[in-house]
Amino acid sequence: MTALSMDERWSLADAIAARTVRTGVFRRTLSDVLGDLTISPLTGIPVAFAVLYAFWSIFSSFAGDLVTDGFMVKLFDAHWLPWLQSVWPDPQSILYFLFVGDPAAENCFEAFGVLTSGLFVSIGVVLPAVFIFYLTMTVLEDSGYLPRLAVLADTLLHRIGLHGYAVVPMILGLGCNVPAITATRILETDKQRFMMMTLIAIFIPCGAQLGIMLAVIPEFVGLVILTLLVGFALFGFAFNRLLPGENPEILIDVPPYRRPMLENVSRKMKIRTMGFLREAIPFVLLGVLLVNVLYLLGVIGWLSSALAPLFVLWFGVPPETVGPLVAAFLRKDLAVAQLSTIPMTAYQMFASVILVSIYFPCVATFVMLLKEGWKFLGGAMLALMTVVFLYGGLIHLAGMLLGVA
To answer: What is the pTM of this model?
Structure first.
């Protein structure tokens, strides 16, 4: 076959294009108009705030008011707890304390037994919150909105060494930190991945934790999230300045808007919900059992006395917060639930929830960090301890200056 010259190649390409390419008049559809409106900063940012507000409204109304308060609280407190207290023998026994909890408790939150608080927290509070979170996130994902949100967030996130893709693990982290840690692999450099994994483990509360917050401190949830986001930005900025490495620009393919397919949504919901049930419920039940055993052995009391100066003087919280911090290693939502049983002022409850949130990640997140390598895990733990002391002390200082601590 004779080699073609450059001019002959271009002529051949033009001939092929003429036979295969069809041109016509472009007609803008509603999908095109919405795509332009939601990606332009002038209109896209207000739309993003509206979408996130609707997301939070649906989450809090469904998980808190409709399911947990409207059904689960009545089921567990009016039926399950009285029945369990009536059939379990010897309320003074150790097994009663471990599995049922306080004999005088009038609700499952206060009982703190494996079969009372353990089941109520995981099924009555956390499961509805995680379900509605995954449902709304899946709809936004399949509709094509999340890539547009990434483009809008790129300018802001780039100031702290990340780019728009980081919004994906951030949103996943609001459901569960475990898939969020995995999702950091979409970031290009080790610096960005390390920053994102560390910031998620410290400052992004999971859906289960948010669900418990709605039940325990509904009036402070917004302030807690705002405080965590401020910490995310401050320490993200610091990490970006201290850590070596590059911050490449975002390159993303923005798909057209599509109607989410019911089959795809239901399949994703099944996979994510079942994964949560397998990972969360055993850790919640084990966490309640472990904390109760440590109480019986006097370990929690000893730690509370030993760490009292640090907790009271530096963090401004009661020494009894040691117990929830022990539980937080297994499940942070369990730790927040346990805080509700400790007598505290409003400020102390707020500061304690923040402390639990930025404290050592739960064991499932810890394992995911370990899978990423010892270098990532060691650096994340060093950053975490630094953040706990600096940010926890800063919040206490702010409380004292405002006269509420």
So the answer is: 0.78
Cα–Cα distance measured from residue 197 to residue 370, given in angstroms and rounded to the nearest whole number: 11
What is the signed CA dihedral for 286, 364, 235, 134, rounded to 10 degrees?
Answer: -100
* For helices 374-402 and 346-358, angle between their N-to-C axes, nearest 10 degrees: 170
Q: Rounded to 5 degrees, what are φ and ψ at 176?
A: -160, 135
CB neighbourhood size of 220 (10 A): 17
Q: Do 372 and 182 touch, CB atoms closer than 8 A? A: no
C-alpha 139: how far from chain center: 18
For 218-221, the CB contacts below 8 A with 24+ separation are 218/64, 220/346, 220/349, 220/350, 220/353, 221/60
Instruction: State the amino acid at position 20 in one-letter form.
Output: T
Give residue-wise pLDDT tens across range 170-212. 888 887 787 788 788 878 888 888 899 899 988 998 877 888 8
Q: Are 357 and 205 in contact (CB under 8 A)?
A: yes
At 216-231, the pLDDT tens digits run: 888 888 899 999 999 9
d(CA 174, CA 401): 31
CA distance to 66, 73, 203, 353, 367, per residue, from 182 (Å): 32, 34, 17, 26, 11
| Residue at 356: amino acid letter | V
SS3 content of the chain, % helix, strand, coil (to 5): 80, 0, 20
